[in-house]
Amino acid sequence: MPSELSPIDKAKYVAARRAIDYVEDGMRVGLGTGSTAVWMVRCLAEMVREEGMMITTVATSSATAELARSLGLDMRDLDEVRWLDLTIDGADEFDPGLNLVKGGGGALLREKIVATASDQMVVIADRSKYVDRLGAYPLPVEVVPFGWQTTKALIEEMLTNVEVMGRSVDLRRDGPEPFVTDEGNYILDLRLRRISNPAQLSLILNQIPGVVENGLFLDICDVAIIGNSDGTVELRDIHDGTIEHERVDLIDGDNLFVDVVD
Ligand code: 5RP
Fold first, then answer.
1. Which of 105, 128, 224, 257 has the largest count of CB atoms under 10 Å?
2. If DSSP states are collapsed to H, E and C, what string results for 107-163?
3. Using an 8 Å Cβ cutoff, are 121 and 183 in contact?
């Protein structure tokens, strides 16, 4: 393990390192977005290079696509590949049922499309992302720019009728300007503090005209790998109902910084 990493990066790294064990030769793999996913893309590229594997990848954001290409991974459009064997992605929050909040990096729409098109989704995260109940992390909702203030008002009105603890809605900004997603949309961050019924909320949100998609990923994730800074991981498999603990075997000289274009 690169020794100069901070505890949080070590945790992300071991989760990412363990996740690539799910990748088999010939697979079509969805690549997530965010700092944990960056570790995974680096680990995957190194494994593909060292073991001469044939892997086709689809990225969930332009940032991930750029990184994956710079590392020599075979990157395709989803329309070319159509269906994926596996997607590995990070999350902003996940609960014991492996329901997720995603979109902190603004890529929730492509992330949800790619994860839904995959036979299996593996989430990788440090322990801080694991929560008893979703909602502490603001829920990102992607909306079309046209009439976004009306859409925001409709969401605020809808929130008065659902069981949440907070109800403020903020337009995500990139400096003084609205943050713009890869699909040219805006993001509204919903500060709900506690989401009592994620399925109901997701359904109602997606019925509002102007809402493109929300960051709740329900019944999509199969396995969560929680990384710890001591080099161990916890694997939670929602189908087997198992929780396993392992130490990640790292080969001395894991060389993840080679060929990385920052
Ligand atoms: C991006 C996401 C990311 O997966 C999520 O924000 C986690 O990112 P990180 O690994 O940097 O904590 O959903 O839209």
1. 224
2. CHHHHHHHHHCEEEEEEEEEHHHECCCCCCCCEEEEECCCCHHHHHHHHHHHHCCCC
3. no
Task: Let me know: does 106 contact 141? Beta carbons within 8 Å.
Answer: no
Which atom of ligand 1 lies at the shortest distance from residue 140's CA?
14
Q: Tell me the catalytic residues.
A: 111
User: Model pTM?
Assistant: 0.95
Rounded to the nearest angstrom, the distance between the alpha carbon of 63 and the centre of ligand 1 is 12
Q: Residues 86, 18: one domain?
A: yes
How far apart are the CA of 261 and the centre of ligand 1, in A? 20
pLDDT tens-digit profile of 93-105?
Answer: 999 999 999 999 9
Closest of 158, 152, 156, 160 to residue 178, by C-alpha? 152
* CA-proximal residue: ligand 1, atom 4 (nearest): 90
The domain that holds 199 is classified in CATH as: 3.30.70.260
